């Protein structure tokens, strides 16, 4: 089913194309230098979910639910660095005047019957660090294309939103569905929607790596033609772990 909310957003954006085209090629006043960052190690056990938040970091979002079938409520967290040195002066360039390049870490911890929580996942690759001021934070639940995390039916879901205020027409969301098995976080599903604001074309992709099926739906918000639907069988291969997926916004489900 097409995302009606996203379609309405695109219709409004198409009406503003003359203004967007002007904004897409601004003059860059100065070059931004992204400072290096060292990722903080997360503790392996904490009495409460907040115990996994390192000093100088903040909790961006949280989800709870049973991920390993033991009846206990596990937690997933998005932690965001709050180092002021990584907030850059971007005045005169495209994007906001203040550009936050601080990274995020995805954390998952299982509840322990003995009390507290045990760390099972620490990842900063799926949601890459922001380096382009004209793009949104992919994990921002309040972004133009909302991102975030969820725990649903025993799976861990990560949604990465993308939107460029200049220099690109694409916007949409990629959702990765993982399961935990044999101490690994395995990708079992991928769903995305991508819309080109200049043409109004959109494509939805849904991949189920357990049934080895992929469905692609292509259409155009400005056309009354029926959507083109293509299904295919995916080759049977070992499931990718979250580490092997790499940068989620660079992931290609058709490869």
Main traits of this protein?
5-stranded antiparallel sheet; 40% strand; 3 helices; 14 strands; disordered N terminus; 255 residues
**The biggest beta sheet, please?**
7 strands, antiparallel
Beta-strand percentage range: 35-45%
- The outline comes out as flat
Number of helices, counting only DSSP H or I runs of 4 residues or more: 3
In total, how many domains does the architecture comprise? 1
N→C terminal distance: 24 Å
- Structural classification: mainly beta
Contiguous uncertain segments of 5+ residues: 1-28
The residue fraction in helices comes out at under 10%
Order of helices and strands: HHEEEEEEEEEEEEEEH
Could you report the average pLDDT, rounded to the nearest whole number?
88
**Radius of gyration from CA coordinates:** 20 Å
Spatial arrangement of strands, main beta sheet: 8-9-10-11-12-13-14
The number of E-state strands comes to 14
Write a concise synopsis of the structure shown.
By secondary structure, this protein is mainly beta. The chain has helices at 4-15, 17-23, 242-245; strands spanning 45-46, 57-65, 74-81, 87-89, 98-100, 104-111, 117-123, 148-152, 155-163, 170-181, 184-196, 201-208, 213-220, 228-233.
